[in-house]
Design a protein that fits this description.
CATH class of the largest domain: Mainly Alpha
Number of strands: 15
Number of helices: 15
Oligomer: single chain
Low-confidence stretches: 9-22
Bound molecules: zinc ion
Largest sheet: 4 strands, antiparallel
Order of helices and strands: EEHEEEEHEEHHHHEHHEEHEEHHHHEEHH
Strand order of the largest sheet: 13-12-15-14
CATH topology of the largest domain: Butyryl-CoA Dehydrogenase, subunit A, domain 3
Structural class: alpha+beta
Shape: globular
CATH architecture of the largest domain: Up-down Bundle
Strand content: 5-15%
Distance between the termini: 33 Å
């Protein structure tokens, strides 16, 4: 359920400076369009959406602390189990080959694609483990009360790392690998797969029950920041607009530009620094690499000493030929359509931010949110290749090598993710309202 917010008024502002609990109205400056608004006290399970651009300003939860503590504890246990147990076993020519979560990256490094290996380890092992660990640390710290060090940093880094934790994308890649192997070798699902699947469910449940605003307010009560005088200011005036902290969303006084947030000590900027130049550079790099990503082979399958390299598109055709229509559609959308749509979307948003336009800004803000969320799903193909390279090593009988196209493709995914992260959607509204 969505509830409307109120435009911020001067009296509302003054009353909001001394906020205490999540049950009071709070002042927020929209992260997507910069409109200052008062979010009323929310009932459980309610989303407060921005008046102007429909961005989610706050999502309330019945019991944000205890549920999230329990879920992240469960997720940490399942991830630990999933990381050390076998996720798949393949059999061919009388041999058995088990694979663990790290077997893929090891196989990629052995094939000389160490950059890809680092990316897969980061997104499937390091980011999930560290972000879950940091959330657990924050929740335990809040539960135990005063005196836990580094709570602000822990929660800030958990939120920054969350988009790079890609177990859910990895599991889709696993299914694609599973259906590709059917014709080549016999593959069995291992216990580690079920642990990772459970981890994915608990992570989704955590995201749904996490009320970040409540957590930041609880951190503020338990571990107040000690900043030098004048280093930061609260929002206590409406003119000009308050500066929203990029980490904890606290609305800060405009004079705090180039100072630090009083709640989490993040450096404050009115807009993301050098947003347009950075976004353009990253998007351009992604566009240039899109050509080699689609023309060089992403993997080579050797069967009975006969090798056949395949590109992303020919992989889609193979899935179609094998009758796996749904998987073919998923891989096509994730690997071919999503990067193109992201690059086109970034181009349109850059154009609007530079040239300005006063219509369809609400839709353009939605486009920004879509571009920022879908990019990670393009990693399906990379994870699939990593699993295949780890599992299918039976010499001339059946072997799969990852190809250099995969490296270019991974670079496209990473560059476009960085481009979306560097883009500041508020610039489109600035240009229109100035
Ligand atoms: Zn907005
Ligand atoms: Zn902050």
């Amino acid at each position: 359920m969505h509830v409307p917010t109120h435009p911020a008024s001067r009296t509302a502002y003054a009353g909001l400076v001394a906020r205490e609990s999540g049950r009071r109205p709070i002042l927020l400056s929209c992260h997507d369009c910069a409109l200052p608004q008062v979010v009323p006290p929310l009932r459980n399970g309610v989303i407060a959406a921005c008046l102007r651009c429909n961005a989610t300003l706050r999502r309330s939860s019945a019991d944000p602390m205890n549920i999230v503590l329990a879920l992240s504890l469960g997720a940490a246990v399942l991830l630990a189990v999933g990381s050390v147990t076998v996720i798949a076993v393949v059999q061919a020519i009388g041999q058995r080959r088990p694979a663990f979560l790290v077997s893929g990256p090891i196989a990629l490094a052995q094939s000389g694609l160490w950059e890809l290996s680092v990316l897969v380890v980061f997104t499937t092992v390091i980011a999930p483990a560290v972000s879950t660990g940091l959330l657990l640390y924050t929740m335990v710290g809040l539960r135990l009360g005063r005196g836990f060090p580094f709570l602000q940093g822990a929660f800030a880094w958990r939120n920054r790392l969350r988009p790079w934790s890609m177990i859910e994308v990895f599991l889709v890649g696993y299914f694609v690998a599973y259906s590709k192997l059917g014709a080549l070798v016999y593959m069995q699902i291992g216990a580690g797969f079920f642990a990772l699947f459970g981890f994915m469910i608990l992570t989704i449940a955590t995201d749904a029950s996490l009320d970040k605003q409540s957590v930041w307010e609880a951190i503020e009560r338990v571990a107040p920041m000690v900043l030098p005088p004048g280093a930061a200011a609260r929002a206590d005036t409406l003119q000009p607009e308050p500066i929203s902290c990029p980490t904890c969303a606290l609305a800060c006084h405009p004079s705090a530009a180039a100072a630090s947030c009083p709640r989490c000590s993040t450096k404050l900027h009115r807009r993301k620094p050098d947003s347009l130049a950075r976004t353009a550079a990253m998007a351009m790099s992604g566009l240039i690499l899109y050509a080699p990503a689609n023309t060089f082979p992403v993997l080579t399958v050797i069967k009975l000493n006969q090798g056949s390299p395949s590109t992303i598109l020919s992989g889609v055709w193979e899935l179609l030929g094998a009758g796996q229509v749904l998987l073919a559609v998923i891989v096509f959308l994730a690997s071919v359509a999503v990067p193109v749509l992201k690059l086109l979307g970034l181009g349109v948003m850059l154009f609007v931010a530079i040239r300005g336009r006063s219509t369809h800004l609400r839709q353009l803000s939605s486009l920004y949110r879509v571009v920022a969320t879908i990019g990670r799903w393009s990693m399906i193909d990379i994870f699939m290749e990593s699993i295949l390279a780890a599992l299918v090593q039976f010499g001339g009988a059946a072997t799969i090598y990852p190809g250099s196209g995969a490296l270019a493709f991974a670079a496209v995914v990473v560059f476009t993710m960085f481009a979306a992260e560097s883009f500041d959607p508020r610039l489109m509204w600035d240009k229109a309202t100035r």
